[in-house]
Design brief:
Length: 399
């Protein structure tokens, strides 16, 4: 008799059997915490802000709790006030005119990016979704569950840490349904110029591909502010933009974001299925997210905080023979380890000898075309408080 597992959707198998990168890192971190005194391990491993949600947002959520008494289902595609806040923010930040009917509330960029391939992939066809490598894993996992194949577009020193469209063979471009773009890019911190975004839009239009632009780090940058794909006029036809309050406003515990598209053929099904499948982001969280989007002060303060952390750790890493890639955005630092070392070897030595935890780069990227572009790199999430970053820098400097 067939066992219960034979009832699983076969598309799940490669997702369920692949090692979860955080498992190894978590196990190592646990071991190190047992080795060292309490609080000694400094954790740059996971990209989860440790800074509090801004007070004005917390206060708004508290007030909304009393106003709404936590009763009633939320509007699944987004409460009117939250949608207004999104539209106002997109206009002020990127100068683009989007209407409230062209956006939809989501549980954040992870949820949205994982589910989007299911809207555009034909599981009976030989479809492909193009994902950056290294890149955010739900892009590829959502692709697999939808019944398509990920094509990993390597992002490395050789491509100047940008997606190189000439690396996409014509037979892949023909089969591609979705192109995942992420600028500023996790983990390299690289952000794409308006010209480069235009080039990707042109490629997608030419090949009839839906461009999914994950812009969840758009407010974390060190120099010039990043552009949105929405600023490219031709993107109106092919692009869906994702953004989130997780990184901009430290609202990871709230899981709230939005998708925006000017093409009703792309957004309409997302809004429709959201209404059929979800009760929506909690009212009080939508109220907090609206308040967050209307405040431009706290993102500016956070940019200064990340810049200080970056300046604190950069020279210390260079001092131990590493070559950090100067990030233009995100809160990640992508660091090339010394020539004779490996991602895992370097990160484990740092953890077990100095109590500094970071993410081995080969675990956040795939071997593809005979190379793993994350090999020889580690990723630092600049989320610990600056005093901790300073301690980490001192530990690196003291042999
Ligand atoms: C590129 C990228 N997209 C999305 C997310 C998650 O976003 P959210 O918290 O909105 O689900 C992350 C979080 O690390 C990320 O790095």
């Amino acid at each position: 008799m067939p066992g219960p597992l034979t009832k699983l959707n076969p598309n799940l198998e490669p997702i369920l059997t692949a090692p979860y990168p955080f498992d190894l890192v978590d196990a190592n971190k646990k071991k190190a915490r047992e080795m060292f005194p309490e609080g000694y391990v400094i954790d740059f491993g996971i990209g989860d802000p440790t800074d509090p949600v801004p007070e004005l947002v917390r206060k708004r959520m508290a007030a909304a709790t009393e106003e709404l008494k936590c009763s009633g289902y939320p509007a699944a595609v987004g409460d009117g006030d939250y949608l207004d806040a999104i539209v106002g923010w997109l206009k002020a930040r990127f100068g683009v005119d989007i209407s409230t009917g062209q956006v939809c509330a989501t549980y954040g960029a992870k949820y949205a990016s994982f589910h989007i391939p299911m809207f555009f992939v034909d599981p009976a066809a030989d479809d492909v979704c193009i994902v950056p490598n290294p890149g955010y894993p739900p892009y590829a996992d959502g692709t697999l569950l939808a019944g398509a194949e990920p094509f990993y577009l390597n992002i490395s020193e050789a491509t100047d840490f940008e997606p190189d469209l000439s690396e996409i063979p014509p037979n892949v471009a023909e089969r591609a349904r979705v192109f995942f773009l992420n600028s500023p890019h996790s983990p390299t911190g690289r952000m794409l110029s308006l010209e480069k975004l235009g080039e990707v839009v042109g490629f997608c239009l030419q090949n009839n591909i839906v461009l999914v632009s994950d812009e969840c780090y758009s407010e974390l940058y060190y120099g010039d502010a990043p552009h949105s794909v929405l600023e490219v006029p031709q993107s109106a036809e092919c692009a869906i933009v994702l953004n989130s309050l997780s990184k901009r406003s430290m609202m990871t515990s709230c899981a709230v974001g939005f998708v925006a598209s000017r093409n009703p053929e792309l957004l309409g099904p997302i809004r429709s299925i959201t209404r059929k499948s979800a009760q929506g982001v909690a009212n009080i969280i939508q109220a907090g997210a609206a308040a967050a989007l209307r405040d431009q002060v706290h993102p500016e303060q956070m940019r200064a905080v990340y810049a200080e952390r970056l300046q604190t750790i950069l020279p210390a890493l260079e001092g131990v023979g590493c070559s950090p890639v100067r990030p233009q955005g995100t809160f990640f630092l992508w660091v090339k380890v010394p020539e004779d070392d490996t991602s895992l070897g370097f990160s484990e030595r740092l953890l077990f000898e100095k109590g500094i935890n970071c993410m081995p780069g080969n675990l956040v990227s795939k071997e593809w075309g005979g190379v793993n572009p994350g090999g020889g790199f580690v990723r630092f999430a600049l989320v610990p408080p600056v005093e901790k970053v300073r301690q980490a820098a001192e530990r690196l400097q003291t042999g």
